[in-house]
Design a protein that fits this description.
This protein is α+β, with helices and mostly antiparallel strands and about 375 residues long. The chain is built from 13 helices and 16 strands. About 35% of the residues lie in helices and about 20% in strands.
């Protein structure tokens, strides 16, 4: 802005441009400044200095209310403006999608619930910002911070749906939909409603590995759904698949020299009368079963399965998942407090550098699981 004003003949009286930095400085909200004479040199200036230069308290607006329609209502001595918090682009997308005629009413319920959740969170964040700056943003030796606008509180919090089964059914319907209108809500849901989706975390593996190639042979081509479209992102060379055993979506994308599988990990493996036979460490943790099949290791959203030295961390997620599958191949894996539950010996086995595609058979896993790990490598 300082560069633009320096070149504007009508703004020759402007010497310095100040911008809120988002934090709290020594004498009020933090400010970054640039002079039109040397706009490339940014520096920090003090709120208290500007207040003294102006000769009166400066108004401050919380981030969500820094809009021209709100700021223009302020004048010295004016009462605090009560303004409405406007929906952001994600919330507007969800509410617009809720107007679509979905095959199941649960989809509309899920979309509106997430939209209300996002609005409530924005209101809570705004209230917290006003509280923090109100308590700590004033000059320690002077007057408190002049807060020029606050948000309207009537009607909040917006209602939420307490039935998680209905919400989960709604997101399943959206994920499996082939409607064009399902894509953007699904993209939002995969980030903000992961605990309601029937899938685990986003995973990408190279197709050149033996385990990935075997798994690819188990997949079935399918018509793309909303979740497939999100996984494909902007890639051009893509084909769409479903794992008929676990139901997870998968996308094969890339050129002939650089091809990868992108999928959402399963939350559980099916009970087909088989047991865990071995584990393959190849981009992700693969589970081979005694019926000759291979599957990506099940994992909960927000977590990931890894191995090797962790720079002080240990691969307790993979160790605990493997241990659960050894007891029951079809269990709904849990990673709650995995660092406490993971067998020490199994964690130690995985806490080592392994060659790409290393296979750990049942016997090695069971032997490690029964061992107590010490501090030696």
């Amino acid at each position: 802005m300082a560069e633009e004003l320096a070149e504007d003949p009508g703004a020759q009286g402007v010497i310095t441009v100040c911008v809120l930095f988002g934090d709290i400085g020594f004498s009020g909200p933090a400010l970054i400044a640039a002079d039109t004479a040397q706009p490339s040199l940014e520096y920090e200036t003090q709120w208290g200095l500007l207040t003294r230069l102006v000769g009166q308290p400066l108004p401050w607006w919380p981030r969500a209310l820094r809009r021209s329609d709100v700021i223009s209502q302020w004048s010295p001595g004016a009462p605090v403006t009560l303004a409405k918090v406007l929906p952001d682009e994600k919330e507007s997308t969800l509410r617009q999608a809720a107007t679509v005629r979905w095959p199941h009413d649960a989809a509309k319920t899920a979309l509106l619930d997430l939209a209300n959740s996002m609005r409530n969170q924005h209101i809570d964040d705004l209230a917290s910002e006003i509280r923090i700056f109100g308590e700590h943003g004033g000059d320690p030796r002077g007057a408190p911070l002049l807060i020029a606008a606050r948000h309207r509180t009537e009607g909040y919090p917006l209602p939420r749906t307490g039935d998680r089964d209905v919400l989960a059914a709604g997101w399943r319907s959206i994920a499996s939909s082939q409607l064009f209108e399902a894509y953007e809500p699904m993209e939002i849901g995969m980030y903000y409603a992961t605990d309601l989706l029937p899938y685990g975390p986003h995973t990408e593996v190279r197709t050149r590995g033996p385990a990935a190639r075997r798994w690819g042979q188990q997949l079935r081509p399918c018509t793309p759904t909303a979740v497939h479209a999100v996984l494909a992102d902007d890639a051009q060379d893509v084909t769409f698949y479903t794992d008929p055993t676990t139901g997870i979506p998968a996308v094969r994308k890339g050129s002939s020299r650089d091809v990868s599988w992108v999928f959402l990990a399963p939350l559980r493996l099916p009970d087909q009368g088989a047991q865990l036979k071995s584990v393959v460490l190849e981009d992700t943790v693969w589970i081979q079963t005694t019926d000759g099949r291979i599957h990506p290791g099940p994992c909960t959203p927000g977590d990931h399965l890894w191995w090797g030295p962790g720079g002080g961390d240990r691969p307790t997620e993979a160790a605990w998942v493997i241990s659960q599958l050894m007891d029951d191949i079809s269990t709904h894996v849990s990673l709650t407090d995995h660092w406490r539950h993971a067998p020490a010996g199994l964690t130690k086995l995985l806490n080592q550098i392994r060659a790409y595609g290393t296979e750990l058979p049942w016997a090695a896993l069971e032997h490690a699981r029964t061992q107590q790990a010490d501090d030696s490598p």
